[in-house]
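## retry 2 of 3
previous attempt timed out at serialization; input unchanged, resubmitting
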Amino acid sequence: MQGDESLQILVGSEGDHLPLMEMGSCKPEASDQWDCVLVADLQTQKIQKHVERQRQFLKSLERNGFHFKVIKDQKKVFFGIRADSSVINKYRTLLMKPEDLSSRGKKSFNTATTRIRIVSFVVNSRLKPGDTFENLVKDGVFETMFLLHKGEKDLKRTWARWRNMFQSQPIDKIRDYFGEKVALYFTWLGWYTYMLVPAAVVGLIIFLSGFALFESSQISKEICDADDIFMCPLGDHSRRYQRLSEMCTFAKLTHLFDNDGTVLFAIFMALWATVFLEIWKRKRAQEVQSWDLYEWDEEEEEIALELINSSQYELKSHLHSYLNSTIILIMSLIMICFIIGMAHVLVVYRVLAGALFSSFLEQQVTTAVVVTGAVVHYIIIVIMTKVNKWAALKLCKFEEPRTFSEQESKFTVKFFILQFFTHFSSLIYIAFILGRINGHPGKSTRLAGLWKLEECHLSGCMTDLFIQMAIIMGLKQTLSNCVEYLSPLLAHKYRLFRAYEHGHTSDPDLKEWQRNYRLNPVNRFSLFNEFMEMMIQYGFTTIFVAAFPLAPLLALFSNLVEIRLDAIKMVRLQQRLVPRKAKDIGTWLQVLETIGVLAVIANGMVIAFTSEFIPRVVYKYHYGPCRTNQTFTDDCLKNYVNHSLSVFYTKDFKDHGKMEGQENVTVCRYRDYRNDSDYNFSEQFWFILAIRLAFVILFEHFALCIKLIAAWFVPDVPKSVKNEVLEEKYNRIRDRMW
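## retry succeeded, writing output
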């Protein structure tokens, strides 16, 4: 009988406003006064144990100063939750100094978002050992919890529309509705997009300047006229000696992104990345100061929320275990090795694909292998992203972080490292390993002793790297954005379609709760996923930009879409994110700075080891005609192509007689610096290698010096912000004296 009474109290008759008089619920209020809603399946009300746990949970909320209201429809039971004003006053008292309570602090205190943040924190906190809201959901006591969208019409009109793509963002309104953390994300994303404009323009100019060399380049001319030079077969799939002149088109295209301007663009991007970050720090300081959060302390926020939830809260100290750290380090290294192993899977695919495509593609086998290899890499990225997230969460939980903010920071580091290797391992292979461990014609390195390792395109490894970058960035910027928009849109449409089966209600509260329930659910890492997506894009935009100067342009177009896409998702398609305070973008700033340093190193190595820039310069000033003949009037790179190709005598091929109709070819050429007699590395190889290493050292030191000078020249915090903070401190101390 007791179970029946509990059921009647919680459920009542269909459509009733359930007052829960025995539990001291509040009186019915307007729908815009409810902060969040808990949802349970109607079938759970037939289980006495679940009903009792629901009652205990609601009682615990009531003891902490929360009101609630229960309504059901045909399928679900909704529990509206609202924080009392006394809870907000307690929060204000705990966090704000006495002198701030009257005037200065009011400009930054947002009662609406604060109430929601407190409600969300308390609902998700531990009520008693082993009994959290998450556990209640796992046990089927509740289905979910969501925040209510209230007052978002202005954001829908001015921000979350495709027609507003080229308009500025209402950052203050975003902050008032979603909190400072979301506002800082969109502030950063808007500034990043704005700064991409000069980078995209310079990259496009560098790319288009290659057209000036499209017909006039001495190297392209020599390649196009080289009808008498036969290239050695690249792999086992090739059964013919290919004329060098057949590479004419690829040679011209290569010079669009592998020319002297590439070095200048790489240096420019190193400077750009530094200026971007330094000015962002200034912009962040200005925004945070205007919100009166410049001196806000996140740990104090966490402690205040814990005390509001329980006055008996005992401070949880920072912990560190060398054993746990060692285990985490070992597990992380195992994951990285696994990811690198996936890159080797890609190598195996490219080798086997070359053998497969040779049966129906003769002249375009290498191009087909590169293109399909890039698509396979993208598929691996999609799969490994889910694996990396799971592994990073497991490692993070094992570390036992003290607070959610600490957990988010540690998770960010681990997940980004795994994602970095997932996205860039194959690019590193193509840029610095592909074609360099293959041996030479007649004595090739083979996979499992059977298949010859893949080699660079005849026009150079920069072509392979360019194609790989273009395809991966193109797929990520197009397919990812399409999936990111269409997936929540279709999911929301489906939830709306199913809602028609449950009928309609005239109750304003229930109608509002149902509308929000049908939106797509969010989690605490929803904003994290947006940040991670942008960090990976930033990596593509900077790390290998020397090989793909169009990367900033693609990123610019993508970000213009990304800003509105994220806005539409957050306001129109998803349930409301928990508003969180923040005074910076946290660990992501260190990630950006790390990417900036990696970009300097990677671009220097791409120019030195992947590009033909160093061999061209060495030939021009050491081996070319301009060095031996000071009165030489032709191009100083004349005869460079013949100089850069090594000679191989076809009689040393074991199966030379099987070549198709070209048995009379006695000499073929290949891209390397080896002697004609024993095919060992020549003196030129070692001399150019020394110049390459010297260039890497000089380039990196020069670029890093520019970064340091730019960082010093542009202060992190504007003078006006420093003076305003200083004046506030002065007035505060002066008021205390009097």
